[in-house]
């Protein structure tokens, strides 16, 4: 029997044991709570930025009436209060009856063990992969292992012995973490507490976790400066580095309608609480190019915790999802106690970190239109590393074609100004033209003349200018390689036109 009340504590299961956390402890990064309060020092904190993976833990989150599958996350940047009713497994919880689990055994046999900083996170990441593959009946391949380890830096042995350990894991010997830790008795506790909202007071700290949107909107109106925290993959870093402190917080992850991810006609409705991993998996069948971009968005640990709405509302000029959403003409849905409104992303960004967002408004979901087969879309991210890196330049193009002619063009660039920008001059220039290499070379040159990027630690202004020019050419080359017959027809049409 469920009951609805407001409680003053967070309930988390750590390696199967229930922890009731209140006061200042609820505001600690999860890794610090594990190390300092739960006496589980196997989880390490090195970068405190979610980059190195030493803090990797496994978490199954409570959603509606059950837990999700176990996924990895960076526990160094995620506050405890985000994990009410979650089940957390640390490296200490991977052993079974005082014996190493199958991943740990193979890491030992293939000499994949390193210093005490890297290895626990590596083992947790690969255990998450083993849990997933065992459940789905798939084998662990080198590609899967590499993908799951993109958030774990290797400092000592190199990756080869670690990859050898991964691909030699015998899944018939894998003992399910879900069966061990997502028990009936723990589930009954969650069912009793799931309807509760949460309000916690700490030392100069305040936390609210409502279960109804109306309550959240009232809290936002009463306290416009309250910080909304979703995945904390960006805010957690800033908090750890002392840029600002998450002392007055509103968490929306217990509001059911904000976790919805569904198709509505030709639009994907993405709730503000939907993780990047969920969105990536969903778009694989609905927008493959967008799913491909999300695969190099960040590490699994970041994507499992971070949200699409968080990336959009952070509003970084190098936010990886924003250019694609701009050319798709996505809409941001906002709510307040006064009602709801819909803002096109193309008009949401006013200046650097300045948005069309009222102090009392909360983003509820993002509407992402899907384009039909007459559209060609490409999304590019240029960074020093392929995985887990901040972009220097981002590029998105959506071109509508009919009989080899461009009938509509949408272009967006990131990393070239204080916000991600659409390029109306370039769009107008492309519209009505045949798809030719010369056209896109000219478009790249013109785009270069229209932007004024800055130099910073990731790239110089000259580098960014050249990359933008090259990306227009890259777009056409990829189109040509995929549509050789159509390109020949367009080139001939353009020649006849001369």
UniProtKB/TrEMBL annotation:
FAD-binding PCMH-type domain location: 200-373
Keyword entries, A-Z: FAD, Flavoprotein, Iron, Metal-binding
SUPFAM superfamilies: 2Fe-2S ferredoxin-like (SSF54292), CO dehydrogenase flavoprotein C-terminal domain-like (SSF55447), CO dehydrogenase ISP C-domain like (SSF47741), FAD-binding/transporter-associated domain-like (SSF56176)
The protein's name: FAD binding domain-containing protein
